[in-house]
Amino acid sequence: DARGLWYDAPDTPIVHRVVKKWQTTSGWYFRTKGDASPTIDGAAIPENRIYGIMCGKIQFIGWLIIALTNPIILISVIVVILLFPFMLRRKKKEILENY
After folding, report:
1. Membrane spanning segments where (predicted)?
2. Same domain, residue pair 56 and 82
């Protein structure tokens, strides 16, 4: 099952798979496990810390989002995206001139 919880971890929001859930008088609690971790996460997550439920999977998208929180990586990606049309036009012109 690919269902997971999106919750407010101490440093950044995170999505982990639910491996156990239980209800108490103060609400629902969840135990989660990250796909890259061999063990279940240590702390139970109370329902008031949950942003949403994830019901699917896009491979490696979490790593991309975490990487983009690094300002150097984010700026590099933006520069590449902005330069791409110019590089494409230049390559197209080069191909047409050599054809």
Report:
1. 60-84
2. no
Q: Are residues 55 and 88 in the same domain?
A: no
Q: Cα angle vertex 15, ends 13, 17, to 5°?
A: 150
Instruction: Answer yes or no: do 45 and 86 share one domain.
Output: no
DSSP secondary structure string, 4-54?
EEEEE-SSSEEEEEEEEEEEETTEEEEEEE-TT-SS--SSPEEGGGEEEEE
- Domain housing 96: 70-99
Identity of residue 70: N
State if pTM tops 0.70. Answer: no
8 A C-beta contact, residue 14 and residue 6: yes
Residue 69: closest CA among 7, 2, 12, 5: 12
Q: Are residues 12 and 58 in the same domain?
A: yes
